């Protein structure tokens, strides 16, 4: 906490400027990073804790919308 960490979204990404031509690709890469990679450890910890109190087999009783 409290320190700035840089993550390259693609190899050599530090040297790539975001331009009008590549901005959509940048948005996709950033969204993927924030929604999947950045929260990977927190999500794994949540799932581990959730499974420690709820039997995973019970989840089959529910549909996705429920």
TrEMBL record:
UniProt entry keywords in alphabetical sequence: Transferase, Ubl conjugation pathway
Pfam family, one: HECT
Reactions this protein catalyses: S-ubiquitinyl-[E2 ubiquitin-conjugating enzyme]-L-cysteine + [acceptor protein]-L-lysine = [E2 ubiquitin-conjugating enzyme]-L-cysteine + N(6)-ubiquitinyl-[acceptor protein]-L-lysine
Domain HECT, first and last residues per copy: 1-66
GO BP term, pick one: protein polyubiquitination
UniProt cross-references to InterPro entries, sorted A to Z: E3A/B/C-like, HECT_dom, Hect_E3_ubiquitin_ligase
One MF term in the entry's GO annotations: ubiquitin protein ligase activity
EC numbers, comma separated: 2.3.2.26
PANTHER family on file: UBIQUITIN-PROTEIN LIGASE E3B, UBIQUITIN-PROTEIN LIGASE E3C
Protein name: HECT-type E3 ubiquitin transferase
Record organism: Diabrotica virgifera virgifera (western corn rootworm)
């Amino acid at each position: 906490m409290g320190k700035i960490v840089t993550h390259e979204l693609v190899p050599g990404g530090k040297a790539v400027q975001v331009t009008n031509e590549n901005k959509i690709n940048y948005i996709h890469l950033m969204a993927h990073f924030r929604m999947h990679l950045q929260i990977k450890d927190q999500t794994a910890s949540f799932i581990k804790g959730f499974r420690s109190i709820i039997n995973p087999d019970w989840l089959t009783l529910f549909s996705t919308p429920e």
